[in-house]
Specification:
With about 800 residues, this protein is α+β, with helices and mostly antiparallel strands. Helix content is about 40%, strand content about 15%. It is a multi-pass membrane protein.
Length: about 800
């Protein structure tokens, strides 16, 4: 870049050298560029990757160009500026120095020279009120003027000593003469100037036969960490000589110590945050967080000085589809505004094409954040939740089926029937000594007064002694009772005796063992865990509904993931997000979280899982992560393409990971500083003490069972009382009939016959003699009266 007023000669020398060495040189005339044109030129240089730039123009114009480059914050990293100006220390490069640009220049005047210091002091003390000159240090152009006047004075003094009078007029030549006629005294003055030898403010002043200054020295300067510093010198005889003294450093750290590196980052809790009293601090001390500590550890391991700077547009970095320009932190690395990016910057393919990443310092994935739903109150019969509704129905049917099968096999199996002999003698029977002799003839039997009802009963009991009762414990009610007792693991007072009945009981016991064990194992979890009913459980639920809106950060890797994804579910989600009105994209994470909290469950935010987990730990503890991660990726430290920092920083990240420091940093900023307790405070499933609402159904069943038992007892009492009253009425009627001369046979209505059902479901049967009916004598009035007398 040159100015036609002073740079054409330098440009010609550069072009000649480039032709000899086969260099490719692009020349730009600065006078033909406006400010907008110059900015466009800087953008073109980024794409062309032309990093060596020579600027040759006057000092005021050079200061304007440097300030414009610094204001754009581009074309700095990896660029090398050579300033074809002899007053390097006269330039204002404060902003350039902050941005860590690589600048080389030349200094003609040695400010540490006593003669220069004296003139500079006199110049600052000069009273210039009448001239209205600004008070500033002497520049190299002023020093050249001073030396020029000194050379003229020395030349005229030499002429005076040589007694050459240049004051006489002589013959004046004609200006338009052809060929031109030189002034006669001019040759004397030229010769006197060539003979001048002196030490001026700009060093050794001496001229050759062509009038060119020769045998002078230039100090080669470089923009250092704090102030410009001399790295060598140049003279006509030796060329460039380096005088910089540098300590030997490892090859991988070469070139990292002699400048302040700019680390770009973004305010994103807990990665990078401003301290509460950050106004009291300066520089890097204003920031805190995971990435703030990570940057300090990396700089400590690599050994360089850095300065944290926030990205201007508060974006991570994406390429604009129209301008193809990168924004955010990626753009600052691409365009040389920063040396390193230490932030939650996702490693992606498109970013890897323009910048370099280290190994991931954190692994994560895209997750879904929703507003935490209200906890569902446990139902009255929540104790039934460990087993599904279908299982309970199957258990009921199995219970009924087992009871019926047990009843049937007990009826069919002969081993379930047992006989009971009546060994008790009727105490009312008379002894043999007191019995009367039985009549031998029918007339005696019929008309004998000793034949009474008591003798008839005695004969019936004798027959019952001879025919035992056969009973079966497993009636239908006892079978139901046995199955219920086995299921409740309480046992029963009866057990199967037959092989078939025991097989039924055994398989039922095994069945109840497994069911009860499974129920008990799940019951503790269901009763002690409070569950929240989430409207969605994953990306599939989001994709197939439209009631809950969902979106991502505008201009980040998450948005790019959905835009480029070829998976059907994610394509459907991207189609919805792209066409949603109002827009579902947010400018930053804080806006997305705020939208989730204010939407009353009608907005879901898609973000990295690490950030989701952190926000879940922040008050008011009303967000939660649902479902698994949609992908797998990592955060990495980024550097410009080809940067010397990449390998040292990468080694530092690997070392920190092996030392376990990265895990310690995450635990410190995620969980140790959490505000919602262990597991995010109100997590989706929270273990707590049982409340009455958890087991209220059990008490309801207990009260209901007690009430039912009392009701059944009342019914039984009423029923039994009615039966007894009927039986007593029948006995009274029979007695009255006997007393009134009724048939005796009717008085035996209470006798046993056939098989009857005993208590508690027992089945009782009797074996009567085949000729039992014929063996009974006919009973007349006497028999009836005897029954009446003995029965009453």
């Amino acid at each position: 870049m040159y100015s036609p007023d002073s740079g054409l000669s330098v440009l010609q020398r550069i072009l000649d050298t480039a032709a000899e060495k086969v260099w490719q040189v692009t020349s730009i005339n600065l006078d033909s560029l406006t400010e907008a044109g110059f900015i466009k030129l800087l953008t073109d240089l980024d794409f062309k990757k032309e990093f060596q730039i020579i600027i040759d123009c006057e000092q005021e114009r050079l200061n304007s160009i440097l300030n414009l480059i610094a204001a754009q914050r581009r074309n700095l990293k990896m660029y090398h500026y050579i300033l074809a100006n002899l007053g390097f220390l006269d330039l204002n490069m404060t902003e350039f120095q902050k941005l860590g640009a690589n600048v080389t220049g030349f200094q003609l005047m040695n400010r540490s020279d006593p003669a220069v210091e004296k003139v500079d002091k006199d110049w600052l003390e000069f009273d210039s009120k009448d001239l209205k000159l600004p008070r500033r240090r002497l520049r190299y152009t002023g020093a050249l003027t001073y030396d020029g006047v000194t050379v003229m004075a020395a030349a005229f003094q030499n002429l005076r000593r040589q007694r050459i009078d240049i004051s006489r007029r002589g013959n004046a030549g004609e200006c338009l003469a052809n060929p031109p006629a030189p002034w006669g005294q001019g040759i004397d003055i030229q010769r006197a100037l060539q003979q001048v030898r002196l030490e001026g403010l700009t060093g050794r002043v001496q001229f050759d036969e062509r009038g060119q200054r020769t045998n002078f020295s230039l100090r080669v300067m470089e923009l250092g960490l704090t102030t410009p510093q001399q790295i060598g010198y140049w003279n006509e005889r030796q060329g460039y000589v380096s005088t910089a003294v540098r300590k030997p450093i490892p090859e991988e750290f070469h070139g990292l110590q002699n400048r302040t590196y700019v680390i770009t980052t973004i305010l994103e809790a807990p990665y990078m945050m401003l301290k509460k009293n950050h106004e009291q601090y300066e520089g890097n001390e204003r920031y805190e967080g995971y990435c703030a500590e990570l940057a300090a550890e990396i700089a400590k391991h690599v050994g360089f000085v850095y300065r944290l700077e926030l990205v201007g547009d508060s974006k991570y970095g994406a390429r604009d589809a129209e301008t193809t320009m990168w924004n955010g932190m990626v753009g600052e690395l691409v365009y040389g505004k920063a040396d390193v990016a230490v932030a939650p910057l996702t490693i992606t393919l498109v970013r890897e094409q323009v910048i370099d990443f280290t190994k991931p310092f954190m692994s994560l994935g895209i997750s879904i954040m929703i507003k935490k739903p209200i906890k569902s109150k446990p139902g009255v019969f929540s104790f039934l939740d460990p087993l599904a509704y279908e299982i309970w129905m199957c258990i009921v049917f199995a219970y009924i089926g087992v009871s019926v099968v047990l009843f049937l096999v007990s009826r069919f199996s002969p081993y379930e029937w047992k006989g009971e002999d009546s060994d008790d003698e009727d105490e009312t029977l008379p002894s043999s000594s007191s019995r009367r002799a039985l009549p031998t003839s029918s007339s005696e039997l019929t008309h004998s007064p000793g034949f009474s009802q008591s003798q008839n009963q005695s004969q019936q009991k004798e027959k019952e002694k001879e025919s035992p009762e056969y009973t079966n414990d497993f009636g239908i009610f006892n079978s139901l009772w046995f199955s219920l007792g086995a299921f409740m693991q309480q046992g029963c007072d009866i057990s199967p005796r037959s092989l078939s009945g025991r097989i039924v009981g055994g398989v039922w016991w095994f069945f109840t063992l497994i069911i009860i064990s499974s129920y008990t194992a799940n019951l503790a979890a269901f009763l002690t865990v409070e569950r929240m009913v989430s409207p969605i459980e994953g990306s599939e639920d989001l994709a197939k509904q439209t009631e809950i809106a969902y979106g991502t950060l505008d201009g980040g890797s998450t948005k790019e993931f959905f835009r480029r994804s070829k998976i059907a579910v994610f394509e459907k989600m991207w189609s919805y997000m792209r066409s949603a009105d109002p827009t579902v994209f947010v400018k930053n994470t804080n806006e997305g979280v705020s939208r989730v909290r204010k939407s009353k469950g009608k907005y879901a935010y898609l973000l990295e899982s690490s950030m989701n987990e952190y926000i879940e730990q922040r008050k008011p503890c009303d967000t939660m992560k649902v479902g698994g991660n949609l992908d797998s990726k990592g955060y990495g430290v980024a550097t410009p393409k080809g940067s010397a920092l990449r390998n040292p920083v990468n080694l530092a990240v690997l070392k920190l990971n092996e030392q376990g420091l990265l895990d310690k940093l995450k635990n410190r900023w995620w969980y140790d500083k959490g505000e919602c307790g262990t597991g995010g405070g109100d997590s989706k499933d929270k273990t707590s003490a049982l409340s009455l609402s958890n087991v209220a159904g059990v008490f309801y069943i207990l009260i209901g069972g007690l009430g039912l038992a009392m009701l059944v007892a009342l019914v039984e009492f009423c029923y039994k009382s009615r039966i007894e009253s009927r039986r007593m009425k029948e006995l009274i009627d029979a007695a009255m009939s006997s007393n009134l001369g009724g048939g005796g046979g009717g008085g035996y209505g209470g006798g046993r016959g056939g098989g009857v059902s005993g208590e508690n479901g027992r089945v009782v049967t009797h074996e009567f003699p085949k000729s039992g009916a014929q063996g009974l004598p006919c009973m007349g009035k006497a028999a009836g009266m005897g029954l009446a007398s003995t029965g009453m």
